[in-house]
Amino acid sequence: RHHILSLADFTTSEYNAVLQTAASFQEVLSRRTKKVPTLQGQVVANLFFEPSTRTRSSFEIAAKRLSADTLNFAAATSSMTKGETILDTAKTYLAMGTDIMVIRHKEAGVPHVIAQEMDRLGVKVSVLNAGDGQHEHPSQGLLDLFTICTLIDPAQPRIELLEGKKIAIVGDILHSRVARSNIWSLIASGAEVYLAGPPTLLPKFFAEYLGRTENSQRLFTHWQLEPALENADFVMTLRLQKERMTAHLLPSLREYHQLFGITRNKLKLCKPNVKVLHPGPVNRGVEISSDLMDDPEFSLIQSQVTSGVAVRMALLYFIGSGRA
Ligand code: CP
């Protein structure tokens, strides 16, 4: 695989290769030196046209742990403020010897357009989608998968471990690229995936669209929280993406928390050892109660961030070593 743009066409063996490679990189990260020479001499450019804390920083540290040289670009402090286009920006980074472009943009499809342009130019640059609009966030989907699978079997994380598990994805499904990537990986795993959100954020047309996807018999949509939480093994709660909402979509935050916010009390509906995930950043006290977010007995939020480094090392390793 030359580019990583989506999980829609990921195969079981690709999922397992990422999970197992990430596990071996996690072992590297636990050593004193923490570094391997795998991508020595390669340049990884983080081209972020939209803000980020964890994705950008963890791709940077992942690249550094693989001994690559890293470049960090933020649109607000770049020559785009003088009118340079996205494609010209990408070509500028190409001309500086970039091997891997990690791209985030608020519009769906931008990483795909840049990947197409690199292919058209006949250059061996790989593009990694770090979140494109409402479309997909593949590295987040993979780190969520890794976080859950390593909890079940730390030595041999594999996608088959999720077969028959019940996983609830709760909240702003409509605007969530994280939900989109997670739906692909979780459906592929054989888990039962329950989506729950208010009708404005899980509209009927969208539920119907999802109902036409492959293996959709394992995908359920609800406008109430309870059916999704009942006997759930894992609950993934999502940020209300206010920046992508027009005013009429934004719910009252108090009412949203009452109906869809995850609290200790609501978790009583789930399996006793249920775990809660959130991709971050979190609107504390809205999607999840503040005390639950910080409770290591239930919350995997910090583990997700930690997993992100090893998983992104695995992704850079796959596309970086394939370039050799
Ligand atoms: N989960 C996630 O993508 O977070 P950032 O926006 O901080 O990268």
Automatic annotation (TrEMBL):
It holds the Pfam family OTCace. GO terms for biological process: 'de novo' pyrimidine nucleobase biosynthetic process; 'de novo' UMP biosynthetic process; amino acid metabolic process. Keywords: Pyrimidine biosynthesis, Transferase. Carbamoyl phosphate binds at R54, T55, R104, H137, Q140, G280, P281. InterPro entries: Asp/Orn_carbamoyltranf_P-bd (IPR006132), Asp/Orn_carbamoylTrfase (IPR006130), Asp/Orn_carbamoylTrfase_sf (IPR036901), Asp_carbamoyltransf (IPR002082), Asp_carbamoyltransf_Asp/Orn-bd (IPR006131). It catalyses: carbamoyl phosphate + L-aspartate = N-carbamoyl-L-aspartate + phosphate + H(+). The keyword Lipid metabolism does not apply. Residues 163-318 form the Aspartate/ornithine carbamoyltransferase Asp/Orn-binding domain. It comes from the Bacteria. Its EC number is 2.1.3.2. L-aspartate binds at K82, R177, R239. GO terms for molecular function: amino acid binding; aspartate carbamoyltransferase activity. GO terms for cellular component: cytosol. Pathway: Pyrimidine metabolism; UMP biosynthesis via de novo pathway; (S)-dihydroorotate from bicarbonate: step 2/3. Residues 3-148 form the Aspartate/ornithine carbamoyltransferase carbamoyl-P binding domain. Catalyzes the condensation of carbamoyl phosphate and aspartate to form carbamoyl aspartate and inorganic phosphate, the committed step in the de novo pyrimidine nucleotide biosynthesis pathway. Heterododecamer (2C3:3R2) of six catalytic PyrB chains organized as two trimers (C3), and six regulatory PyrI chains organized as three dimers (R2). HAMAP family: Asp_carb_tr. Belongs to the aspartate/ornithine carbamoyltransferase superfamily. ATCase family. This is Aspartate carbamoyltransferase. The gene is pyrB.
